[in-house]
Design brief:
Elements (H helix, E strand, L loop, with lengths): L1 E2 L5 E5 L5 E6 L3 E7 L4 E7 L16 H14 L8 E6 L11 H15 L4 E6 L5 E6 L4 E6 L5 E2 L1
Parallel strand pairs: 1-3, 6-7
Antiparallel strand pairs: 2-5, 3-8, 4-5, 4-6, 8-9, 9-10
Helix pairs in contact: 1-2
Length: about 150
């Protein structure tokens, strides 16, 4: 299983098996799928806005990480209109709601996707739970797991 860690961006095809993003809390996992090609890409952003000049840090931020993921999908031959987008995370573990990092991460991800002319097909955001995501590039299935409770397909 291909694991995507904090602030990482990776792509995969069906032949490489599922992708996994563990420990999603206030960060946000942005998942882009091309069901025709059996391809998926994901980035696990941690903060809303980039203030770093280091290329190595760009995937850690919502405003730059989403654009890098889109660019990587396009570099691999996926057209924007073929991409299905799913978003997971943005938890508010401290109860601050509109002022939390999680809320701001979701807000910036949504804004960047909208600016790119992309719509979110499904999302599981907010709340106070840590999430764990399994992505199946071949089918486009995205499963969200929680510490307690039943898994959710989005």
């Amino acid at each position: 299983m291909l694991q995507i860690g904090l602030g990482e961006l990776k792509t995969s095809t069906d032949g490489k098996g599922p992708m996994e993003i563990p420990n999603i809390m206030s960060g946000v996992a942005v998942i882009m799928l091309d069901k025709k090609r059996g391809m998926a890409g994901a980035v696990h952003v941690l903060l809303p806005v980039c203030n770093s000049m280091s290329r190595a840090d760009l995937t850690k931020f919502a405003d730059t990480g989403v654009k890098l993921l889109l660019g990587e999908m396009e570099n691999q031959g996926v057209a924007k209109h073929e991409i299905t987008i799913k978003v997971v995370g943005g938890s508010d573990l401290m109860g601050a709601t509109n002022f939390s990092v999680g809320h701001k991460n979701v807000e910036v991800v949504s804004r960047v996707l909208s600016q790119e002319g992309l719509l979110v097909a499904a999302q599981e955001v907010g709340g106070r739970r840590k999430r764990h995501v399994i992505i199946h590039p071949g089918t486009g299935r995205v499963q969200v797991k929680y510490l307690l409770g039943e898994p959710l397909d989005i």
